[in-house]
């Protein structure tokens, strides 16, 4: 639905996150949507990243997609639009410098619109 941006939906409607307990689902999510900031046991116990992303993005479409469907859809999209492979196929690999325009063109080969990309500076002086 192009009329609704699925971003920053926190607060409306009021939605809660249900901890994922299915070991197979957790394993699938870990492969496709790893929570690299935390160790594995903490990830399974707290699920910070998945919870944050569901509440921020998944809550927008809660009337259409309940939480399990949101995560299934996210994993299917990840599989369908393998961004790292797409970038590699266009000669763009992690750790090198590229023009924003080149990255946008590569992403647009698998998407309809120009991606919304942002450059961040970490540490200072390194964009």
Q: Any overview of this molecule?
A:
- The chain is mostly helical.
- It has a domain at 23-80.
- The protein contains six helices and no strands.
- It has helices spanning 23-32, 40-46, 48-56, 67-80, 83-89, 100-108.
- The protein is globular and about 40 Å long.
- It starts with 22 loop residues before the first helix and ends in a 19-residue tail after the last helix.
- The relative contact order is 0.11.
Shape annotation: globular
**Beta-strand proportion:** under 5%
Treating each run of at least 4 consecutive H or I residues as one helix, how many helices?
A: 6
Main sheet makeup: none
**What separation lies between the terminal Cα atoms?**
33 Å
Work out the number of β strands.
0
**Average of the residue pLDDT scores:** 83
Structural class based on helices, strands and sheet pairing: mainly alpha
How large, in whole angstroms, is the Cα Rg? Answer: 17 Å
- Would you identify the regions where 5 or more consecutive residues have pLDDT less than 50? none
Order of helices and strands: HHHHHH
Helix fraction bin: 40-55%
InterPro entries: RNase_T2-like (IPR001568), RNase_T2-like_sf (IPR036430)
Family: Belongs to the RNase T2 family.
GO molecular function: ribonuclease T2 activity; RNA binding
Keywords: Endonuclease, Hydrolase, Lyase, Nuclease
Quick rundown:
The chain has 127 residues and is mainly alpha-helical. It has helices spanning 23-32, 40-46, 48-56, 67-80, 83-89, 100-108. The protein has a domain at 23-80.
